[in-house]
Amino acid sequence: MSSAPTQLSTNRKRLRNLALLVLTGAVSFGVFQGTRRILKADPLEAYRKPVKDELPSNVAVFMKDSDFSRVEPNQPEAKCFVTEMRIAQNRQMYDFIGVSKGQLTWKKALYEFSAARGNWNGYGKILQLDGSVKLKSTKFDLASQELSYDEASRTIRVPRPVTGKLYGGDLQVANFVYNMENEEYSVGEGSWVGALASLGMQDTPGASGSREWKITFINGVGNIKQSNGIATYTDARATDGDIIIIAPKMVHDTKKDILTATGEVKYFSSKANVIADQIVVYRKEKRAVLSGRVTMLVKPKAQENEKVEEGTLPPMLPQIPDSISKSRPPAPFDKDTQKKREDTVRNGSNLRDYPLTITAGRIEYWYKKGERRANITDSPQARQELPEGEWRYAWAFSGKYDGEKETLTLESSKNKQDVILKNSLGDEIFGVWGLLSTKEGDDEYEFRANRAKMTTSDDDDIPPSKSGKGGGGLSGPIGNRRT
């Protein structure tokens, strides 16, 4: 009897303990679940909400109207504003929509950019832009559809067609590469139109810095490079309408102000066409040196106003050896025809009426107005083709041209008779020195000749020397006839 209350009390305690145990388990499970939810929670969930269920699994962050910046010691500083930015789970890949206010800063130089789209690769440290790309600096203002920036090499590459401004001129080329470290750039096939003075070439002989020039690039491989004051142009054609210059390679040293063109350099102008292995222009001195197989075609005066076009220089025809010419049957003789021949060939006043071809190993020319002159060395020769197959030919050891007086002096080497004049009439002069006038309509000449042979259609004598400068001299108008 006495045991009943004790059993009831014990059962109640068991029930109470069981209830506490269940409650404790429930609480513990709730805490566990809450903790689990907290640990699994995404701290950037707020950024995901605007595009819920739209982000790829590899995207960790989506941001709108944000600034992107890239700053590392001893590297160019980069930053831009983007309308939309997606950051990958690896936090190294960034995708951009609407890139604007872009800036690259290096060595106090600022390069601005913008594009429709872009991405940053943190592994390769490369920025890619595409769609309506703009690139601007103090030297250029360009537009294209694609651009890449390589932070490691500090190089900007535009691999697709480029239009815009370069050094104030209009640029339209296949591609563009720029190195920010040494400020070197190169372009591909295309053209540049502007004042040649901005590229440092306005004092090329015959060129004018105030005129508009067009440079065409023809092989599309590094046609312009500029680095540390040295500008290199390869496979370029430059023209201002009056002059055409074509060279496989042109190098301009802006510090020394020297322009060097090498290869088969071609120069076409209204007065003369030139081909040479090398042309060096010393702009400060206004001096040009043409060397290595120099061939010059001096145009007749009647062609000086014609449009300048590229062309080929006719080869200088060799003189027919005496052994061959003497074996040919003579042409039928007619005195009137012969007199006409003689007047044409010997009349120096018609020197500017026919093309004149000059060859030499080296021509050094000072082109400053009032000081125009030239030294012609390394076996200079000159040949002029006349009507009806007639010709005039001259050789010398060296020559000197005075552009102000319009005279040409021919000289021999020491103790030699290197000054030789021949023509299709059979006239020959061998001497040590000669002076010719190159003025239009002026047929004056003077020679110190050791030996001379002149043919004539009548019995008139060749006029005696007027110079009084040594025996055997000849002077006067060529073909002068006493009556």
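(ticket continues) Second input and output from the same batch:
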Amino acid sequence: MADKALLGVLVFLILFGVIWASDQITLQGERTIYTVNCKDGSWSGNRCTSVLAPGVRHAFRASRTRQEVIHWVRGSDEPSEKYTDCQVKNRDNWKCNSRKDQKSLFVDELINGRPILTTTQSTTPVPFHAVVKWKWYALQAGIRVFTDADY
């Protein structure tokens, strides 16, 4: 009986870890973009000629009832930014329009939790590179074997 309980706990922990690593469990419906830097190298598309290093984490909290998105950098003293001209479906699917009286948006649209370039930005390169949550934490822990950003 104890073996079955131990197996059940182990299966639960593995399942919880997979869900956490895929960023499906978040506090207060937030979405985070885990940026990376190309340490001692340069970018060629999403490939770093050296190794990846963890960058900053950009967090977003989207409100469907208020049709606004709040953005901040996790662990930073920078104040958060609120964008009010938005169309919010849920935490992973929203779009905000830039306003002249606001600082420019770090990301102005998410589809399925991933940042999307709008047509006005399509001629400029993506201003950042990012990886999935588990890879960012591996980089943070000192595992420097990755060379490709996920987006």
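Agent notes: The longest helix spans residues 2-21. The chain has two helices and eleven strands. Closing as not reproducible unless the customer responds.
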